[in-house]
Specification:
4-stranded mixed beta sheet
């Protein structure tokens, strides 16, 4: 995503966040934006219709109201209509991602991608979550991934920070130390 796209996504996400008066509805709006964004990106015809410069704007508004009007929060519908009016609907995916990040930040939450060699049992996953929560002093939303190349241990990615507690990494460090050790 370019810097200009990031600025657009940030501004619109911030505007939507400011427009939602009831914090209890943020989750619903967040889910709706992500679902609509996925629907648009997965459907080439819908994407072409909504983003098409040759399609009359009022037809787009009517379509959005007909499809989503009774199914989404008022703010979500108004926001989609604003994006259509401002010709920013092509930024919906980035805006939905940024809005999700802002809602999580407001709630002192952060997404953590955890990679292990095998699936963690629920009790281990909960202990790992508590340890991550304490380490970064936030409520971690842990997403797990399995990669046998890790060998053992855990690799956690938190925003732009990597915590590598994997056996593979430890073995790599040991190898470096052994290679650097003088032979007698």
């Amino acid at each position: 995503m370019s810097v200009a796209d990031r600025v657009v996504a940030n501004r619109y996400a911030e505007a939507l966040l400011g427009a939602v008066e009831d914090d209890q509805r943020l989750d619903a709006i967040c889910d709706e934006l992500r679902a609509i964004s996925a629907l648009v990106s997965d459907n080439a015809q819908l994407k072409a219709f909504l983003e098409g410069p040759n399609i009359v704007e009022s037809h787009k508004h009517d379509f959005v109201k007909k499809i989503f009007g009774e199914k989404v929060e008022r703010e979500t519908l108004d926001f989609l209509r604003l994006l259509l009016h401002k010709h920013r609907i092509d930024h919906l995916e980035e805006i939905a991602d940024e809005f999700t990040r802002m809602v999580e930040a407001r709630r002192n939450q952060v997404r953590v991608q955890v990679t292990t060699a095998f699936e963690l049992p629920p009790d281990m996953r909960e202990r790992l979550k508590r340890a991550l929560d304490a380490t970064i002093d936030k409520d971690c939303l842990v997403q797990t991934r399995i990669d046998p190349r890790v060998l053992g241990g855990v690799v956690a990615v938190i925003e732009d920070r990597v915590i590598d507690g994997s056996l593979r990494s430890s073995l790599g460090e040991l190898r470096k130390q052994l290679m650097a050790a003088p032979l007698q």
